[in-house]
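Before a colleague's protein record goes any further, I have to sign it off. What it holds is a sequence and that sequence's fold in C-alpha cell form. Would you go through it and say whether the fold makes sense for this chain? The record follows directly below this note.
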Amino acid sequence: MSRTAKIATVAAASAAAVVMTAVPAMAWTGGAVSASLTTPLVAPGGVTCSTSTLTGSVAAGGALTVTAATIGGCTGGIGVTPTNLPWGGNLTNGGGPATITNFRVSALGCVYGGTLNGTNTAKTGTTPNASTTATFANQTVSKISGSFLCPGSATVSVTYKFVGAGI
C-alpha cells in the first residue's frame, strides 16, 4: 500500500471514530433550567393564572427535577399554590414526549395532583441561551385532599418555555 493510501486510510478511520463518539448537536447539556409561561395556566376549578415559573435542572438524558415553582396573577385573586416539591419528569431530547411527575397544587382548599403528560419542541439556540417549549394540554389531575365540595378531579393546561444551561 502506498504512503498516500495509508494516510488516507488512517484519516478516514480517525474521522469515523470522531463521528461515532460525537455528542449530537441538539443534546441536552445537563444543568440548571428555569421555565416561564408562554400561555396562561388553567388551574383546577377553571382558575386562569397569568404568571408561573419553575426552576430546577435537567439531566443530559432529559430527566427533569423541579425544585421550586410559583403561580400567580390568578382570576379573582384566587391563590394557587404549588406543593409537594420537588416534582420530577422528563423532557425528551430533540422534541417529543414531556412529563411532569408528582405535580401538586392547592387552590380554594382543594389539593390536586398527578402526572402531566405533553410534548416538547426540539431544542432551539445554543447553550446557555437554548430553549425548548413543553405543552401540557387538558391534563386531568386527581383530588388529593379537600372537603366534599372539591370535585374529584380537575383539568390543568399549561405551556412552559424552558431555558438555561441544562438545555
Observations:
- The first strand starts at residue 31 and ends at 42.
- The first helix runs from residue 3 to 21.
- Residues 27-163 form one domain.
